[in-house]
């Protein structure tokens, strides 16, 4: 068998041009593109934006041109508790405030993990990962927990998004450059047997200054004026940590991670993590706890029944209509358009990097059928109100099963047996190179 494509092969391949429907498909694709030509409008009618179980979440937020979805989704979970406490219809927490400290902590994490690998060459895969991802916007719920526990939260009005917070490309490039040269210098300092820690603190002070110029310096105290549902004006004067403890007060340790990610190296009922995926040194690692698909769905249902929004992550770009707000299996019939068949399983898509854990959002409702099963979900996104139905999306059950990878729910929404497995689960470290760790759209 020839290893190259021969003229005879080309003659065989060219016969595909004359197959029925190919010319029609080509004309459609030429003007509307692959997805536009393959969209099945009937699927939209099958999943209406109607829900009989709803968590009142308020107006949607907008992360704009930044990869802070995980942070927005986490704050969207907490703001429901805050809105209830303040007796307001909608409230927003400052994303820029946590963003500032996330970048600062990631800078320290990058330098520490780089120094731990002092003896590795710069082209070692782990070093390459640090250089590529160390200061990126992405993150996970565990990293959100690390920030809130250490720094608290503040109302959006106390530190609003500026130009850089909403569009982080220039900042990330600058920080990556500064941290790369910092790490190279620290490697030399360490090789010479000199004081690494004091020099690292000087470098982090410089990073702090850069972040303050780019994002604004975070307040240590703030004043917040607001009007409740009854039209009564109120004023709060507080510190970020005191504000969280007084007006939100949720014990973040009550949240547990469940995942359905049937991949080669992820063992069921094991806390799988990577030592290179976190933000706060000595904080919680981002990890996945693989369970059965039905266990994932049951936990989400229990949370929604308790009127709690649910943080989740998945592959938002798969079989979706961003502008119209649909996450529906089969809404793109590329198989019918091109005469192909996709046979990969959920796990095979992840293992072969066809699919990835790209985005975090929150479940804020569902449609529960008479038999108790959920047929579709209401999803709060963070792409502004110009996408979806005023920022909200609809997801069918089949999309959940194929593309939702991880949820965070409270312990009281788990069956006793599953919670016991979670509490007793061993930890397993894996490399950071699979498609679960790079979330941030």
The secondary-structure class comes to alpha+beta
Task: Note the quaternary state here.
Answer: single chain
Average pLDDT reading = 96
Largest sheet: 9 strands, mixed
From N to C, what is the helix and strand string?
HHHEHHHHHHHEEHEEEHEEEHHEEEHEHE
Which percent range fits the helix content? 40-55%
State the shape. globular
Distance, first to last CA: 44 Å
Tally of alpha and pi helices:
16
Number-wise, the strands total 14
Radius of gyration: 24 Å
Short description:
The chain is an alpha+beta fold.
Strands, helices and their partners?
Elements: H1 7-13, H2 22-38, H3 41-46, E1 53-54, H4 69-86, H5 95-116, H6 125-133, H7 141-151, H8 163-166, H9 169-191, H10 196-215, E2 222-227, E3 233-238, H11 240-247, E4 255-259, E5 271-273, E6 287-288, H12 293-305, E7 310-314, E8 320-321, E9 326-327, H13 334-338, H14 346-351, E10 359-368, E11 374-380, E12 392-396, H15 397-403, E13 404-410, H16 416-424, E14 427-429
Parallel strand pairs: 5-14, 9-12
Antiparallel strand pairs: 1-10, 2-3, 4-13, 5-6, 7-10, 7-13, 8-9, 10-11, 11-12
Helix pairs in contact: 5-9, 5-10, 9-10
